[in-house]
Amino acid sequence: MEAKRSLSSGARSQVTEDGFLSALKMLDVGKWPIFALCSPDELKLIRQACVFGSAGNEVLYSTENDEVFVLGTNCSGCLGTGDILHSIEPRRVDHLCGKKIACLSYGSGPHVVIATDEGEVYTWGHNAYNQLGNGTTNHGLVPTHISTNLGNRKVIEVACGSHHSLVLTSDGEVFAWGYNNSGQVGSGSTANQPIPRKVTGCLQNKIATTIACGQMCSMAVVESGEVYVWGYNGNGQLGLGSSGNQPTPCRIAALQGIRVHKIVCGYAHTLVLTDEGHLYAWGANSYGQLGTGNKSNQSYPTPVSVEKDRVIEIAACHSAHTSAAKTQSGHIYMWGQCRGQSVTLPHLTHFSCTDDVFACFATPAVSWRLLSVEPDDHLTVAQSLKKEFDNPETADLKFLVDGKYIYVHKVLLKIRCEHFRSVLNGNEDDIVEMDEFSYPVYRAFLEYLYTDCINLSPEDAIGLLDLATFYRDNRLKKLCQQTIKQGICEDNAIALLSAAVKYEAQGQWRHHIWTPNTPDPKGQYEDVAVTL
C-alpha cells in the first residue's frame, strides 16, 4: 500500500486561473459499490479495473505505473495473493506488477485468466475442473504463467465460461481447456481438458478474429464474418435451430450472408453485431434478455431493433441475464434482468457507457469486460498549444536564459501578452537574451502564456510574482499568490512574507512560525501575518 501511495507524493501542484488543481484523466469506477473501500487518492491512480465474483465482491485493478492490486472476499484464492484471506483494503499482487494487462476474463468459481501486452497468459483461482490449464485440479493461489502449447504464440484475447477457458492467438488460432461436460472445450468428447488444446474441426485453417463464452458454451468469429459455436445448447444459445449440445465447432448456417463483427454471451444467451451495425440475439429469454419483446427462447438468430439506430457496441456477461448496447449517436440501451425486473425491449438509459448498465442493474454487479481509460488521440486547441510549447521544430523565436534556450512562437506571445505585442512588433530577431529573471521563472512565465497555469515551487513563484508585477499581468500575479499561499511552511514563511510585502500582494493570511531562540526547549509559536 505504501508503494502505491508514494506514486502521488512529490507531485507538483498545477494551479489554473480559477484556482482548482488540475487532474489526470481517471477511470470512473464509482458506480461499483466495492470501490467505496478505496480512498480517493487510490481511485485517482486506477487505469484498468475488473469487478467479478458470484456476488461482485472481488476486484482487480492496475495503476498508472502497472502495479496490480486486488481486494474482496477472495473465494478459492481468486485474488492471487497467495492465500485465501479476504481483504477490505487493496493488496498488491507482486506476480503481476510490471506486466501490462491487455485483456482479462473470469469464471464462476471464480477463476481468472489474463493476457499481457506481450501475449503471455496467466491464470489463478478456482481449478476443480482444470480451468486454469496448468495440468492440475489444485486451486491456484498466485498467478501462474501458462505456456504449454502456448509458449511460442502471442495471445490477444481471453474468454471464460463458468469453469472453462478460451484464448485467441495473434495467428487466429483458438485454444481451450477446463470443464467439458457439454463439449464446451470443442475436443469432440466430454472429458475435462487439463491443458490448452487447439480447437480444430471446422475451425481448422480458419482465422478467428474474436471469441466469447457463455456459462457452458464457446464461440468464435472468423475473418469471413462467419460464427462457429460449440458446447451446451439446452436453451438454443448456439443458434443452430436445435437444443442439442455440440462437442465440436459448428457454423451458424442461419447467419449465411451476414458478416458478424462482434459476439458476446450472457449466461445462456448470445448477441452478435454485424458490420452494418445490426444486432441479432438468440438463446434463453426468461428475463427478456434477447430484447424481442417477449420471454420466449429463440434457437435461431433473431434481429433486435434499437430505435432504428446503428449499433456500435454490444455487451453481455456469462454470469448475468442482462444485455446492453451503444448506438452511433451515443445512446445506451439495456434489457433483460435489470435489478430484478424483466425488461423485454431495449430501454434507453441516461448512462454514457455500457459498463454502467452492469454496475447499476446487473445481478451480480460485475464488469462485462476489463475497464480501461480510453485513449483519446484528439487534441483540443488548448492541448495543442500546450504540446507546442518549447518545441524547437515549430518555434520561430527562442529566449536565451541562464545559457538555456526556451522555444516559443511570436504570434502566440503577441496574442497573449501586451508586453510582447509591443516589443515583437516588427522585430525579426529569432533569439532574445533575458538577464532579468532566472530560467525556471521565465520558462514558467512563457509556459503560462500557452497553458493558463503555472507549475513551480512557492519559492520560484516569488520570482514569477516579480515578473508578473513587472509585466502588469494581474491574472498571473493572482496565480502566483495562490501558489505561495498554498505552499507556505515554517521554513519559507519569512522569505514569502518579504515577497508579499515587496510586491504589495493583497489579502490576509496567518501562519505559525516556530521561533527556536527562546528559553522554552520545545520552542514557542508566534503568529505572523502574511499579506497575500
Structure description:
With 532 residues, the protein is of the alpha+beta class. The chain has two domains: 29-372, Regulator of chromosome condensation 1/beta-lactamase-inhibitor protein II (Methylamine Dehydrogenase, Chain H, 7 Propeller), CATH 2.130.10.30; 381-502, 2-Layer Sandwich (Potassium Channel Kv1.1, Chain A), CATH 3.30.710. The chain is 17% helix and 34% strand. It is built from ten helices and 32 strands. It has a five-stranded antiparallel sheet. A four-stranded antiparallel sheet has the order 6-7-8-9, with no helix packed on it. Strands 10-11-12-13 form a four-stranded antiparallel sheet, with no helix packed on it. β10 (155-160) and β11 form a beta hairpin. The longest helix has 14 residues, at 458-471. The model is unreliable at 1-25 and 506-532 (pLDDT under 50).
List keywords for this structure.
single chain; Methylamine Dehydrogenase, Chain H; 532 residues; Potassium Channel Kv1.1, Chain A; 2 domains; 10 helices; disordered N terminus; alpha+beta
